[in-house]
Amino acid sequence: MTQTTWQFNLDNQPHTVSAEIAPLGGIRGVQVDGAALPAAGEGSFDGAALRNFSVDGRSLQVVQYSGSAALLVDGQAVPTAPGQPLPARLQKYEAHRAFWQKLSQLTGLKENPRADGQLEWRNRLIGTADNRLVVLNYSLSNQLLRPRIAIFTRFAEEKDLNSLRGKIESDPVVLALAKRLKRFTLEMTVQPVGAAILLPYDVRKTTPEQAVEDIRALLNVIKKHTKPLPLTFCDWGHCKSAAHPRELVFYNHSPLVVCSSCMPLLEKAGETNQARFSRRTPGLLKAASAGLAVGALAGVFFGIWKVSIILAIASFALFFAIIAAMNRLTVKRTTGMIWLAGAFTLLGVAVASVMEATLKLLRTLTDTSQVQYGLVFSQPESVRMMVTNLGISLVLTGFTLWFALHQQRQGVRELTHPTIEHSGVLD
Ligand SMILES: [Zn+2]
Fold first, then answer.
1. Sign (positive/negative) of CA torsion 170, 136, 203, 104?
2. Hey, which CATH number is domain 95-229, 3.40.710.10, 3.40.1440.60, 3.40.50.170, 3.30.1460.10?
3. What is the pTM of this model?
4. pLDDT at residue 111 in the model
5. Could you tell me which residues are beta bridge partners of residue 124?
């Protein structure tokens, strides 16, 4: 447990904030001017590594990052004492913040920091450009973790997505931009009623002016090939005719346009999802049978080829194949299914090992050998092989199971406790 203390002035009033941080356990406690802050509450945007609070009407955040902690006052990183330099990591954060503030000034889009965003992930701009909703988000490339600006915009429903994507990708403006960025093509997601284009930037090399020019050019390309969202459009449920005004809302960080009559339904989305999720789902038994079949068939196949060790080493692949088979036959994935998949994986490896051992044993038998049920389990080398295979599989399946259960928990949490952020931007 480490403690970090910040001393700073707000409107000439001195304040002290201190935070206790457990390197692996997140923020344990925050004191503001000597008084402890209440623990992170349900429904707020706080997390293990983030606490939001306010002092004299200013919004403050304590953020944990790689073992250390930052204090942000209205988004600005504060040194531990006045006049002290900021750590290098926070200087980098400030460079990004300055870049995004400049983007806001140049585009006229409003700063709208993501409520649960940590450091650079707070950067978000929203507003309208040419009567179309626009959201700019901070993003990172998956491979090289290079920062990008995710440019979202909405348009009237497009039936032929491939054709729209083709038109955008082959637009001379996009081609020229990709060439300048030394990329084969720009990364983008094109959906029926919206698109996101990812524009890489580097705060040391790209000027905000250049970025804004590129963003405008890209938005114009989308405008050229699409029509604006009709006034009847609403993102929620099966809403056929929007009641105005519509608001830009972030649902699990996705920008949605929701009309005023659907807004109460959106607020209840977590409860609705919870109720739908707790209901028993049809096809669960069928799904379990399919999983069992995949496990057993793989076992027989690898057993016949006498390569059960390969199946043991590929336990994680077998596990996901079983999950995939189950998913095809049911409407949702449950924790029980994941445990079953783990059991079927071990079963598959066991089947393969026993078959391989039996086939090997059969070859050594002569006419005079006395064949007994279970003979294969009395052979030391067979037992050794089975134990080795099952041991390997147990370790790998254990890891895969842990990973899958963790993913499942996160998925269910996102479904039943969605983060809903209102932007206040009406359309
Ligand atoms: Zn609606």
1. positive
2. 3.30.1460.10
3. 0.80
4. 95
5. 137
Q: Where are any strands of DSSP class E within 93-202?
A: 110-111, 124-129, 132-140, 147-154, 187-191, 194-200
Residue 185 CB partners (closer than 8 Å, separation 6+): 169, 174, 178
Instruction: For residue 261, report the distance from its CA to the centre of ligand 1, in Å.
Output: 6
pLDDT at 251: 93
Q: Are 4 and 29 in contact (CB under 8 A)?
A: no
Q: Quote the ligand 1 centre to 159 CA distance (angstroms).
A: 21
* Torsions phi, psi for 199 (to 5 deg): -105, 115
- What's the gap in Å between 424 CA and the centre of ligand 1? 16
Q: How far is the CA of 419 from the centre of ligand 1 (A)?
A: 19
* Residues, beta carbon < 5 Å, ion ligand 1: 234, 239, 242, 259, 262
CB 248 within 8 A of CB 133: yes
Q: Give the pLDDT confidence score for residue 74 in this predicted structure.
A: 93
Could you tell me which of 25, 47, 40 has the C-alpha nearest to residue 419? 47
Q: Which amino acid is at 225?
A: H
User: Where are the domains positioned within the chain?
Assistant: 2-85, 95-229, 284-365+372-415
Distance from Cα 150 to the centre of ligand 1, integer Å: 26
Q: Each residue of 16-64: pLDDT tens digit? A: 999 998 877 788 889 999 888 776 655 578 888 899 888 888 999 999 9
At residue 368 the predicted structure's pLDDT band, cuts being 50, 70 and 90, is low
Which residues 6+ apart lie within 8 Å of 172 measured at CB? none
CA 11 – ligand 1 centroid, Å: 44
Q: Which of 126-130, 216-220, 307-311 has the lowest mean pLDDT?
A: 126-130
Query: Does CATH place domain 2-85 in 3.30.565.10?
Result: no
Residue 192 Cα to ligand 1 middle (Å): 17
